[in-house]
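Blackboard transcription, Thursday session:
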Amino acid sequence: MADLSRLGVAIEDGDRDLAVELTLGAIAEGITPQAILDAMTGAMDVVGDRFQANLIFVPEMLVAARAMKEAMATLEPFLVQAGIRPEARAVIGTVRGDLHDIGKNLVAMMWRGANIEVIDLGVNVTAEQFVAAIETHHPDLVGLSALLTTTMASMRSIVGTLRSIDLGGARIIVGGAPLNAEFAAWIGADAFAGDAGAAVAVARQLLGLATGPGGSNGPGIGRAVQ
Amino acid sequence: MSGRDRVLAALNHEEPDRVPIVIGASNATGMKVAPYHGLKRLLGLDSEDRYIYDWPELGTILPDEAVLERLHADVRGVFDSFPAATLARNRSRAPHGPFIDDWGSGQVEIEDGTWYPGIHPMADATTIDAIERYPWPDMDDPSRVAHVHDTAARLAADGRYAILATPWLLFPFERAFAMQGLEQFLLNLAVEPDFAEALLRAIADRCKALMGHFLAELGEDVDMIKIGDDLGTEQSLLMSPAMYRRILKPIHADYIAFIRERTKAKIFFHTDGDVFDLLDDLVEIGVDILNPVQSGSGKLGNLAEVKRRYGSRLAFCGAIDTQRVLPTGTPEQVRAEVRRAIGTLGPGGGYLLAAVHTIMNEVPPENILAIVDAAVEFGTYPIRD
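(Written on the board underneath:)
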């Protein structure tokens, strides 16, 4: 019997080969794709919690996300076959004038780890590019990132443009080093996410999604991976 | 009291006549071109723009002496140069083309005049072989330091200002970001630790080689040598303390020992973010001055605790918030920020007042004048509450 908790630990530890092997094993044994997916998203919740609690740091988070990505790619065809869809869809980008992407990438990884489909527009993204992506993809979430104080003005202007169009119910989440919740509210965003771990909890809260099956949204529990 | 005496007293953890002011003497304590133009306008000064490292793409101004005097700047900078061939190659490149430095890493222009370090020549490298095969720059090229002796000697003979000397980015961890990209290198720290450590060591060897030449040219004419590596984020560290201690701290320790063998200058260590949990380590390996004390981030925001725990072992340079107060605050709010920093970090000396990082283009020049005028007003010893 494949052990889904071992799959979770493999993802948390960033062991991509083992994560793929255990995913294939679980599929071969006829465990439902939903149960396998839940084990994976639960593991990423644990990763996010540990990151927020300073039990792990960016390198460990990157390696866990990489293992998650490969295990998920292995599972994907079976999810499609079973008709299991991502819980939500997000468009994300670093705003115009800024090429810093690690924060945005970490949020994208964690959203994907929470079974949110992510369309990553990259860096230096203009208001027009956000608008076009929203019209094409009809996302539930729009994520905007900025690292430089210089580009906070760009973020404000882009959110202003997004507020002037029909967002189809999409919610706007902003994040980045110099930002805070007051700034987010002031420029008209729906929420501020302080880090990539928080971004999952904030997204779920905005969308009314349940907390992932294996983790909590509170400060982390578990062991440090150092 | 001369600016230099003021700085030396503060670094000696004694109270000078007022808190020294550091502005314009390095990239991390510098300013971008827009606020500089604003300042010149306010002051009625007209002079040609010059850039530190003779490098417009970095965008950090080498301020005119008249501006520095108005800003009560107590420190002057000495810099190295790109090799002559690197400068010549970049000057003859196509307009708006990428700026490639001597290491092979480079900057791309995002929009007119705004450059971002986006070229990482070792992005795909994961093997020791790739490190050995890489065409590393020649650190013995004499054009890198040809001007250093004269510049430093002139400042030292003048004697009015302390000298802060900084070769460009001889920072092993940050140079590894430049070579691989931040995300890729951080991933490699986790999945290819032997490679990551070997890359850091290969870089550190080059840093030491150039630093050796730079220090030889400076001779006695230097008060502070700036090195560093960004180790923190707004909330935490870029790597676990355990990983820092295992991989990077020995490299920093060796580098600092190398510098100390060659100069009496103080070690000015620049490291962004909330590095509170590494301060004991930095003290242990010989850091004298912590910069920038990023006061908007995590535990470093508790300046009183930082001063209480480390004030006798570290001097501090920075602490004036560049993320919120300087770009969006009023001059009155800037004055309050300066007063708060001086009131907490100033007593007993050991504090050089500076902005947390480069003063960015959106900072009003009035706020820069507010920093320095408040520093003179509130920073005159004895500090009053």
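Lecturer's comment: Chain A has two domains: 1-85, 86-209.
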